[in-house]
Backbone:
């Protein structure tokens, strides 16, 4: 994830294993996301890259011995003594993560207008101040950010959640006010913590919901087990 936010821009796609993030097969070139037609072209490039690595993994699973330099490179990612079953399981576990370096850089610049105020808000609510960096992941501190699910503002509140803490109607949408929305985010995160008792779970519940996190913890027993093994 450090490489995703500091090394690769949005014109690179990182092809990796979804379960073991240390297994990175390679990076492919993508068109800028704002270029006309880029979505369809990039999807095809990602599909082709995934299929390329699936074929290599399939050969490794069937033959166990790498036949060329590329196969040896991929086999080495799994460590010495990797069994055919490891390659077989990885075939359907290939994921593409688009780089975020340029977006993160712009977000760092935008955050300068709000971060000190947000930090003060979180401090006043007794929250860990590092939580004020969450908008880097949610929206890159873009007040105009709007998702397909209808989430808006730097904290990406959905309409339903936003209405619990803010005024959200046809006339006024406080989700787009970075300061008012930060007050709401502080309240939501604090309530999550009060219900879940630990910050990793409270942060996870910001997107997954408290009920979903409680179900996961009930199924797995501990928060560590949730993060390591839960697939819900």
Residues:
């Amino acid at each position: 994830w450090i490489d995703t936010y500091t090394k690769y821009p949005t014109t690179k796609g990182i092809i990796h294993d979804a379960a073991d993030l240390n297994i990175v097969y390679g990076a492919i070139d993508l068109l800028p996301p704002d270029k006309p037609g880029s979505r369809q072209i990039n999807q095809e490039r990602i599909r082709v890259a995934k299929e390329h690595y699936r074929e290599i993994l399939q050969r490794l699973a069937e033959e166990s011995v790498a036949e060329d330099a590329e196969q040896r490179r991929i086999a080495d990612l799994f460590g010495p003594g990797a069994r055919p079953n490891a390659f077989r399981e990885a075939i359907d576990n290939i994921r593409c993560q688009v780089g975020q370096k340029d977006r993160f850089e712009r977000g760092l610049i935008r955050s300068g207008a709000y971060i000190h105020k947000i930090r003060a808000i979180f401090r006043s609510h007794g929250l860990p101040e590092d939580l004020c960096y969450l908008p880097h992941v949610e929206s890159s501190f873009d007040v105009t950010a709007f998702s397909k699910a209808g989430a808006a503002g730097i904290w990406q509140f959905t309409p339903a959640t936003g209405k619990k803490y803010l005024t959200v109607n046809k006339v006024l949408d406080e989700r787009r006010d970075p300061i008012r929305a930060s007050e709401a985010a502080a309240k939501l995160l604090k309530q999550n913590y009060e219900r879940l008792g630990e910050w990793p779970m409270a942060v996870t519940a910001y997107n997954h919901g408290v009920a979903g996190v409680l179900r996961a913890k009930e199924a797995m027993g501990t928060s560590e087990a949730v993060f390591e093994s839960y697939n819900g």
Summary: The two ends are 21 Å apart (CA to CA). The first strand starts at residue 12 and ends at 17. The CA atoms of residues 35 and 41 lie 10 Å apart.
